[in-house]
Design goal:
The protein has six helices and no strands. It is mostly helical. The chain has one domain. It comes from Lactococcus cremoris subsp. cremoris TIFN3. Keywords: Membrane, Transmembrane, Transmembrane helix. InterPro entries: DUF2798 (IPR021529). This is DUF2798 domain-containing protein. It holds the Pfam family DUF2798.
């Protein structure tokens, strides 16, 4: 069973996405509530909800739009797909999820939703992009390479 899961082509992507959602939801909750008002219970409750929301946004909107942009854009065809594809998916996902979460949590200055949204989005994007490219993706790939070498699929 473990060998099948490790060698499934979508497992790495789901683990990377779950790790990113976990780190970013913790980061945003700590930023919003502060270290003293942060609750692990809140995070454990909200993580599955956010993960499902991000998964739906990614499958329905982000990946199809980014795929279309890659097929139609001359500029994007000159950039490595390993960099541009996840970068654009992160940007689209964070744009949509931050708009929804800013609105639902009322984390905005009254009558200034758009300005508060831009501040929240930029604060998250500044962390999400380097976190993905320099921490999460390399560590998950290294972990799965190690697991695959120790659990050969026959």
């Amino acid at each position: 069973m473990l060998k099948r899961v490790i060698h499934h082509p979508e497992t790495i992507g789901l683990v990377i996405m779950a790790t990113m959602v976990f780190f970013m939801s913790n980061y945003n909750m700590l930023w919003r509530f502060g270290i003293y008002n942060y609750s692990v219970k809140k995070e454990l409750f909200i993580f599955p909800v956010i993960f499902v929301a991000v998964y739906i946004v990614k499958k329905i909107f982000s990946v199809p739009v980014v795929r279309l942009l890659h097929n139609k854009s001359q500029w994007l065809s000159n950039i490595s797909k390993d960099i541009s594809f996840p970068l654009l998916v992160i940007i689209f996902n964070s744009t949509i999820i931050m708009a929804i979460s800013t609105y639902l949590t009322h984390n905005y200055i009254e009558n200034h939703f758009f300005i508060s949204y831009l501040i929240n989005w930029s604060r998250s994007a500044i962390v999400a992009i380097p976190l993905f490219f320099f921490v999460v993706q390399p560590l998950i790939h290294r972990l799965f390479n190690w697991l695959k070498s120790h659990h050969k699929f026959q």
